[in-house]
Amino acid sequence: MEKKCRKCDMVKPLSEFNKKNTKHGYELDCKICFRANERKRRLVRIMKIDPEHGNRLAKIQEERDSRGEKPIEHAWCYNCKIYKHESDFSKSNLNNSGQCRECSNDKDIQRNRLLKLKAIEYKGGVCVRCGFDGHYSSFDFHHLNPSEKEFMWTKARKSTFEKIKDELDKCDLLCSNCHSVVHSKLNNDGSLNKEYVISSKNEEN
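Below the sequence we write its predicted structure tokens.
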């Protein structure tokens, strides 16, 4: 079934109208127009109490109105500045009207990059074994004593820098090549690697 909105004068499915508090019937305004009216009434009330806060809300509403009509099953990405299908959002971001999944992932990548760069700088910025000082992705944090390892970098990077300092203090900064070497039990000729360090507690048993 369909119904004509009193405000926008458009015929829309009943699903686009809020049900009244009574057992039967729907509101005369569609959901979009109903929400717009509620925002205006709320703004009028706030302007009387706190004009400064009201002006901030007015700017937010002006920006929201400039987006145009929200398509069904779509949400606004604050980073892309466009409507995207709800399937493009994680559940938490969709519920909080945040960024789409792609933007959220890009933000995490940038955050992880900056955190690792800060950790590399904290540990001196060069491989302690060969002096390598190149691309940040080629650095690893080598635990000198694996029995003291509390978490891997993949988990540490989800924490703040202050929380991972203690873990970094248990490590040497190595390039990926040197890190592989010190965790290799044998040399090329089959002799025992004198620098060998076990990589996990499990290897002790």
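The first strand starts at residue 2 and ends at 4.
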